[in-house]
Amino acid sequence: MIKRRCKTFGCANLHTNKSGYCNTCTCKHASDYTDTRESSNDRGYNYKWRVFSQNYLKEHPTCAICGAPATVTDHKDTPAAIMLDLYGRFDMDPLHYQPLCTSCNTRKAKEDQQKVEQYFARKEVGYPRGEGRKNASPPTTAPVGSVNTHGTFYKGVCVDGEEE
Asked: What are the helix (H) ranges across 37-164?
């Protein structure tokens, strides 16, 4: 076999690997990647998810953005990390997903990363989980007196804003 130069910038090693990298760089890149990234199962992509994704891609074979063959089931509205933080699992409702090709998914993942960083930065500051969503905590300043709304008494604020 013909020996070739490693594809890593600045590496002068010769190799015969199909990957294009010498053994030293292959080990270095693999350890860099596996040291920082959790397994797919730890990131929520378990057996149920894989079955759901395969079935979803069978029903939706083309990319929602460019029309190429879809290879990835993407979290349309809520990025995966936020969904896991809020609910502890992925919602298997097909309305929350879209089929994407690999290149469109990579592009969208970069945009989603900004949303994820903002979400966790706000969470660190002390905003409640899911603020602005249906599972947000009720405001602490809400009035609690009895209010008449069309002949019925409720606790809270009247529909037209008048308290009794």
From this structure: 47-59, 80-87, 102-125
